[in-house]
């Protein structure tokens, strides 16, 4: 029998691929919720068929976006425990109902832990921020925002310089979230970042993946910002829960950088509503020899990062592999095909 994928899994996969659901932590949360839905909706009548349904759902979710490791880490976490287990007579130890209950419980636990980890790392990150500090952000990271929120809750006055983050302009989401916290925000175009580093006490960004050597994979533009910050002597702090640690990089795998549609660049006005006659002629049309490249992420080498703030404490990037080994061991199995 072909495995059944629940409609909510398909919807979640589409939402992630089209960036209706975006940001590494939010993607992981949505993927875990979708697996819980799959477990509840599965009509499988044998443990093997149930497992096949869950693996098919994991595969569909896994294929959406390649860079944020929080997604495969979430899938692995929820599907751990589904491995076949037979008794002495060769009968499955766990019934479909038991597998269902356990899978839903694991998904819910994962979602709770995610929220808890973000709150905890926020308090760790807040300790690095002093009253009166100005923080520069890039893209929109819920982990990074959690640090600022905790600092504000501690009674510190924090101001923010927010890079708009072309082409999808996630900086506007950050600006809105910070203003809701009562943080004064100055919104700048990406190209103005170096100039405003003179007025900045910390660069604070999130991460989609962190490699074993401490490299940080985050929104395109992060590495340039970090290099400029180092030149200006501004510390770079990366806020990242441990589900952003990429276990496969311990065995030499590299992190795939997502290349997105050229229309995001050519039709950037869709995100800003400022179409001009000059650009509208070029919309979606690179047949005239124009090549458009649209990498969504880049890699910041560890030497440009001062601290990686996790729910387990803060780490110099070069030491993050210790935490990675502790949490993931040396090997991982993949619950997707
Ligand atoms: C989002 C992005 C964020 C990280 C961390 O990119 O690069 O900095 O995902 O976010 P996109 P969080 O918009 O392409 O998904 O801290 O919320 O996990």
From TrEMBL:
InterPro entries: IF-2B-related (IPR000649), IF_2B-like_C (IPR042529), Initiation_fac_2B_a/b/d (IPR011559), M1Pi_N (IPR027363), NagB/RpiA_transferase-like (IPR037171), R15Pi (IPR005250). Gene3D superfamilies: translation initiation factor eif-2b, domain 1, Translation initiation factor eif-2b, domain 2. The keyword Membrane does not apply. The active site is at residues 139, 208. Signal peptide: none annotated. It holds the Pfam family IF-2B. One of its GO terms (molecular function) is S-methyl-5-thioribose-1-phosphate isomerase activity. It is an enzyme of class 5 (isomerase). GO terms for biological process: L-methionine salvage from methylthioadenosine; pentose catabolic process. It catalyses: alpha-D-ribose 1,5-bisphosphate = D-ribulose 1,5-bisphosphate. Keywords: Carbohydrate metabolism, Isomerase. Its EC number is 5.3.1.29. SUPFAM superfamilies: NagB/RpiA/CoA transferase-like. It comes from the Archaea. Substrate binds at residues 22-25, 65, 218-219, 244. Catalyzes the isomerization of ribose 1,5-bisphosphate (R15P) to ribulose 1,5-bisphosphate (RuBP). Reaction proceeds via a cis-phosphoenolate intermediate. Belongs to the eIF-2B alpha/beta/delta subunits family. R15P isomerase subfamily. PANTHER family: METHYLTHIORIBOSE-1-PHOSPHATE ISOMERASE, RIBOSE 1,5-BISPHOSPHATE ISOMERASE. This is Ribose 1,5-bisphosphate isomerase. It comes from Natronosalvus hydrolyticus.
